[in-house]
Amino acid sequence: MVRRVWREDFRIIGYYTGLITIGVGLLMLVPMVTSLVFREWQSAIDFGLSIVLTLLVGYLLALISRTRNTPGLTHAMVIAAASWLVAMVLSAVPYVLSGHALSLLDACFDTMSGYTTTGLFLLQDLDHVSQGLNMWRHLLTYVGGQGIVVLALTFLIGSTGGAYKLMVGEGKDEKLVPNVRHIAVQIWRISLIYLFIGTAVLGILAIASGMKPQLAFFHGAYIFMSAWSTGGFAPYSQNMLYYHSLPMEIVSMVFMILGSFNFALHYAVWTGNRKEILRNVEIVSFTITVLTTFSLTCLALMQRGVYPNAVALFRRGFFQLISAHTTTGQSNIYARTLVREWGPLGMLALTIAMAIGASAASTGGGFKGMRMGIIFKGIVTDVRKLLSPERAIVVGHYHHIRDNTLTDGAVKSAAVIVVLYVLIYVVGAVVGMAYGYPMADAFFESVSAGSNTGLSCGITQATMPTLLKVMYIVEMWMGRLEFLSVFTLFGFIAASFRSLKRQKVAA
Amino acid sequence: MNGHRAQSPTRHRAGGRNEVLGMATELVWAGVLIVAGYLISQLFFIGR
Amino acid sequence: MKRRIAVYLGMTILLLALVPGHVLAQEPPLVTTTELVEHSASWDGKTVSFRGEVLEDVLARSDGTWLNLSDGNNSAMGVFVPRTVSMPVISWTEDYRTIGDTVVVTGVFHRACADHQGETDIHATSVVVVAQGSTKDNPIHPGRVVWLIVLGLALVVVMWFYYRKPGEDPSVRGDSQEPRIRR
């Protein structure tokens, strides 16, 4: 890090992290009320205790660090990374109190998984947890999808300059409209409208599939939040298999797909620019890679004779593929079925889909469609340059909301991030293989964590090696924040130590 | 909440009609992708 | 004549005693979810017995009923009970506050059921409730209530300090020597 760290920097970071922590505490009111509604008294008390603890930490932090200064870009990135970690630990408290987590580390794994909308979990006996805890798990992914930061933006911070930077720190750097408050409001507006529609439709379908009405709409909400936030949690260990309902799976797929869209695209389409959906580089990229990886999946499944007819191939194969490519992680097959029946090629097809991932500035993970499009166009442009006469000027373009020039800088940034993703995917896979897991399995699980997908082929268990748990937590965190925020945090910490040393020497 | 509507050009307005049409466009598009997936599965079973 | 009958009878009894039990009485083996999924190819199409706790939602459809039976930690199997098979009364299902009935089903396991678009399921030919459910004990821990009150009071104190005086801004007062952050 280039510049020195002053006390004021700590103040800014502490203050805004404190505010975000307060937001997290207030969020816990929802599961607490849920438990009260279902007369789950111990669960309600557990959440009450968690709320008080979280608010205490948040207010203390904010009180100690109170400042009038607004965050600069560097601060924003550090705040994003730091608040993520603080939220992860405090949000784990209800898990620990519920008795369903074997350790604080396991609970943190689950909350990191929730906030990053991954969907892997170490929770024990999921089939017997309270409605309150299930509400909390799903809420984590819904809110995490929007970014804890945007939540804070909407409710706690008045200024706009700092707010914009807080969001950039989050990895959502789309310039939707100049005013940042407006961006946050629009993101929430779209999400809440779809939340209402999704819960209603899925709730009705749940009733039609035999569920009691008083539970059906909770499940509708859970499944919607899981799909839209591309999180992948479900209230029962069988995930979507629990419902035995093709209509519910199809509706869920629709929301997975929509949830994987760039918010700038949502905004464009919702404000009159509907043609954008056909021209947008990410949509084009997504369509091509979905159909390609699905064809590969079908090839693999047909080769092994896994499914007896086309509808079965579609219902299981396409659902898994969409779940993987949107980095959701919902499943309508058992985890081990991937290994025992689908086999390495089928798993590879899903792994590629997960690695590529969803759109930028969305709840999804992976390389992102934008980068696939930019890199592809970069290659094409380079080839055209080679084939053109030396004096000709060849410039590439890509369409995202408007036509953009394909600059060397854009291609380079895209490539750098893709390389970083590949790096964590590989490191995670190597750690898995070092513990004895087969290559296909290790890569699958590592990419699932790093792309925040959450499909599991069976490696993720409470009994898995501690280092592997930590590895996946780090992958989920870095993958969600797209590295820059995390690197800035580390750089900041390093710079702080250097500054402290300098101050000591000077004194 | 929509206090900044005045800044946007006329076509790009966060109005009710545009929102509904926008939502419909997105939903239709997702539906089309799902149908495409279904057709591909059917293709793989042709002749079996 | 009587002796011959006695000899034949004796030989028959001897033979029957020697014949292995599983040929005479075809008891479907009791399996777990893990066993079925790990070895789905070998269990595919076989008749099995499965025992589990009935999870919250018993899903009645037009052609039958779906049960989800939990047989362990994060382990559950979907069982389809066709209309033609008699369903016993399920009095208790899993909930935060209740333990569901324990049920044993016998049926055919499908690795990728053709009727249900590739689902991994068991089509039951018989369903028997072997143990009644009950209410679950979720005792309230008094220690946690105490912590709740103690931390709650601490929170009130901290919040009072936080919201006290809007003008009181320590970052303005004593730190004028430190450089402002340039943006």
Quickly list its features.
heterotrimer; A: mainly alpha; globular; C: 183 residues; alpha+beta; OB fold (Dihydrolipoamide Acetyltransferase, E2P); two-stranded antiparallel ribbon; 6 helices; disordered C terminus
Main beta-sheet strand count, sense and barrel state of chain B:
none
Shape of chain C: elongated
Considering DSSP H and I runs of 4 or more, what fraction of the residues of chain C is helical?
A: 25-40%
Number of helices of chain B: 1
Give the C-alpha Rg of chain C: 32 Å
The shape of chain B is rod-shaped
What does this structure look like?
The complex is a heterotrimer of chains A (507), B (48) and C (183). Chain A has a domain of 173 residues. In chain A, strands 1-2 form a two-stranded antiparallel sheet. About 3% of the residues of chain A have low confidence. In chain A, helix 7 packs across helix 8 and helix 10 packs across helix 11. Chain A starts with 6 loop residues before the first helix and ends with a helix. Chain A contains 22 helices and 2 strands. Chain A has 507 residues and is mostly helical. With 48 residues, chain B is mostly helical. Chain B has one domain. The longest helix of chain B has 29 residues. Chain C is of the alpha+beta class and 183 residues long. Chain C is elongated, with a radius of gyration of 32 Å.
Concise summary:
The complex is a heterotrimer of chains A (507), B (48) and C (183). Chain A is mostly helical and 507 residues long.
Question: Helices, strands, pairings?
Answer:
The complex is a heterotrimer of chains A (507), B (48) and C (183).
Chain A: H1 7-27, H2 29-37, H3 41-65, H4 73-91, H5 93-98, H6 104-115, H7 131-146, H8 148-155, H9 161-170, H10 180-208, H11 213-228, H12 246-259, H13 263-270, H14 276-279, H15 281-303, H16 310-325, H17 335-356, H18 369-387, E1 396-400, E2 402-406, H19 408-434, H20 439-450, H21 466-481, H22 484-506
Helix pairs in contact in A: 1-3, 1-4, 1-8, 2-3, 2-7, 4-6, 4-9, 4-22, 6-7, 6-21, 7-8, 7-11, 10-11, 10-12, 11-12, 12-16, 15-16, 15-17, 15-18, 16-17, 17-20, 18-19, 19-20, 19-21
Chain B: H1 16-44
Chain C: H1 2-18, H2 21-24, E1 30-31, H3 33-38, H4 40-43, E2 47-54, E3 59-60, E4 64-72, E5 75-82, E6 98-99, E7 102-113, E8 119-131, E9 134-135, H5 142-163, H6 170-173
Parallel strand pairs in C: 1-2, 5-8
Antiparallel strand pairs in C: 2-4, 2-7, 3-4, 4-5, 6-9, 7-8
